[in-house]
Amino acid sequence: MKTKQNFLLRWLHSPIFDFLCVFLIVAVIAGCKSQTGTVMKKGDPGLSGSHKAGQEVYKPMVEEAVARLLAQDMAYSAGSLAMPGTGPMKKVCFVGVENKSAEEMGDYREQMYEMIDRAVTSHGQYVMVGHRFVNPALHQAGVRVDDLFMPEPRRRFRAVMEQQNMPFDYLLFAKLTSGTTVDNKDSQRDYMLTLELINIETGAQCKEGCDLSKAYNRSLAAKVKNR
């Protein structure tokens, strides 16, 4: 028994044991720092961003804001159009997403454009004109996006788009804003997506939006409360 104990003590104090311990610690630390990926199945819950908004904020806001906007436009034009799905398709020129929130959108700016494009197109009564033509046409017409709210710049831009065989009936604007409330270490950010649809023939405007609030927690009490 004493021989086994002596062997164990010599082993615990040997350089080999020290090397194995160091190797194990390094392996664990490296494993913690490494990144893995998982392909998510349709219907799986998405991640909720810990520091800024992402899919969990933008997707529901886009879906609700687009639904409200198009419902309002259809109600305004109900007297002059056939039933939805039977009349002429309304051509919409979407000039992009203006970010006035406290956060950089990064790659989500283009992602939001695509989400709005898909939501409008899936309605069945609207079709988007080619987005790749918009910025070159604005440049050629010498017009900024904000200028399109004025009749004359709007006519110049429309003329350039028509020269490219991209006529349209409506201009669509999207703006993202935010407001932040801070409570010591914790905060709440209220996001709002506003959509404006302008009929270029009549000048009539439809404006709708959707808002969503998200808590960002650093204190333990808030983390437990908002789990």
Question: Would you write up a description of this structure?
Answer:
The protein has 227 residues and is of the alpha/beta class. It is 41% helix and 24% strand. It contains seven helices and five strands, in the order H-H-H-E-H-E-H-H-E-E-E-H. It has a five-stranded mixed β-sheet with strand order 2-1-3-4-5, covered by helices on one side. Strand 4 and strand 5 form a beta hairpin. Helix 3 (55-76) runs parallel beside helix 4 and helix 5 packs across helix 6. It is elongated. The two termini are 54 Å apart. 20% of the residues are buried. The model is unreliable at 81-86 (pLDDT under 50).
Explain briefly what this protein structure is.
With 227 residues, the protein is an alpha/beta fold. The protein has helices at residues 2-12, 15-33, 55-76, 108-121, 134-141, 151-163, 220-225; strands at 90-100, 126-128, 170-183, 186-199, 205-216.
Please give the structural blueprint.
Elements: H1 2-12, H2 15-33, H3 55-76, E1 90-100, H4 108-121, E2 126-128, H5 134-141, H6 151-163, E3 170-183, E4 186-199, E5 205-216, H7 220-225
Parallel strand pairs: 1-2, 1-3
Antiparallel strand pairs: 3-4, 4-5
Helix pairs in contact: 3-4, 5-6
Q: Main sheet: which strands, in order across?
A: 2-1-3-4-5
Radius of gyration, in angstroms, nearest whole number? 28 Å
Q: Which shape, going by the Cα principal axes? A: elongated
The profile of the biggest β sheet is: 5 strands, mixed
Please give the count of helices: 7
Order of helices and strands: HHHEHEHHEEEH
Question: How many strands appear in the DSSP assignment?
Answer: 5
Question: What is the helix fraction of residues, given as a range?
Answer: 40-55%
Helix-and-strand structural type: alpha/beta
Flag low-confidence runs: 81-86
Beta-strand proportion: 15-25%
Q: What is the first-to-last residue Cα distance?
A: 54 Å
Mean pLDDT: 82
